[in-house]
Amino acid sequence: MATHPSPAAFEAKFLELLFARRAVLFALIVFAIIALLCAFASVVAPSDPAKMSVRDRLTAPGADFILGADAFGRDVASRLLFAGRVSLSVGLGVAALSSLVGVVLGLCAGFFRQLDAPLSRLVDAMMAFPDILLAIALVSILGGSAVNVILALAIVYAPRIARIVRASTLVIRELPFVEAAMALGVSTPAIMVRHVLPNILSPIIVQATFIFAYAMLAEAGLSFLGVGIDPSTPTWGTMINEGRQYIDQAAFLILYPGVAISISVLVLQLIGDGLRDALDPRLAKDL
Known about the structure:
The protein is an all-alpha fold. It has helices at 7-18, 22-39, 41-44, 76-111, 113-127, 131-142, 146-172, 176-183, 188-196, 201-225, 236-243, 252-279, 281-284. 72% of the residues lie in helices and 0% in strands. The longest helix is centred in the first third of the chain and has 36 residues, at 76-111. It is elongated and about 75 Å long.
């Protein structure tokens, strides 16, 4: 008789596969540090991020200002932490909302044959537009706020989840255990939630991790172009936008937020790669 591994054994095996590459463990540690620093920005920030001092404007990094001061004399280190809180929140919100919308669309398209064609054409039409152009158009319609940016980017990235979910659902709905549930009279919503969804979580989680990174880049791009979150709310993108006109005098104004974005996106990509390797049985055999 075949025996199934206990939850503890499965968790141990998953962690072993996840950390099979040291780069993934390093990425998780780095991202955890960034997230904790931003989450507790009000505690660890050197000063009030909104406090201005004309006398200290464009001060280079030193003892008084660890990462320098911007054109209004505001502490760059403090603003970097508070801006990171917003940027990470946007990325997380987009990943969660796009996953929710994409799962609903993908399940409906994959399970109901009459909905497959119209939903698939809708997804294809949305993916035909470049991400940043579609995001700019949506934010222009909805308005520049954190909530609207999350909504716009979720609409942009939901089709990626929907296509993955649809493809997986088309395969799983034909498996014997799903057909058995149908024969026993289990309701369609129950089959979708209890039998189909748990078996397609792996690719959803991996894709959501990548969308987290894509959303942070997209938010930074929108803020840099001046069509994203209101400039009064600091994000890494708005910090770069504000500092670009002083690049000759104080290049550090765009250096630090640029590095923060780059590191965050890089470690998220590494984490996504690690999750993909650990959750995909075919790749796990090669590790």
